[in-house]
Amino acid sequence: MNKSMSAALLVAGVILLFFGFSAYHSASSDVSRFFTGAPTDKALWLLIGGVFAGIAGFLGLVRK
């Protein structure tokens, strides 16, 4: 994987994490947490995708 692709993955991961945290603290997620004890699926998938994309991008940048 080249450096530009790794940097793009890292940036995409940060963006997904930002939107995931915003969705996690939204009103619909609060209602979901009240009734089910868990946030919405959208918030979870954005956070999980952001973590994996960020890790993949970071590992691609630190490797030779």
Structural description of this entry:
The protein has three helices and no strands. The chain has 64 residues and is mainly α. The model has no long low-confidence stretch (mean pLDDT 91). The termini are close together. Helices cover 84% and strands 0% of the residues. It has one domain (3-62).
- Tell me the Rg in angstroms: 14 Å
Give the strand tally.
0
Shape designation = elongated
User: Percentage of helical residues?
Assistant: over 70%
Give the SSE layout.
Elements lengths: L2 H22 L2 H10 L4 H22 L2
Helix pairs in contact: 1-3
In short:
With 64 residues, the chain is an all-alpha fold. The protein contains 3 helices and no strands. 84% of the residues lie in helices and 0% in strands.
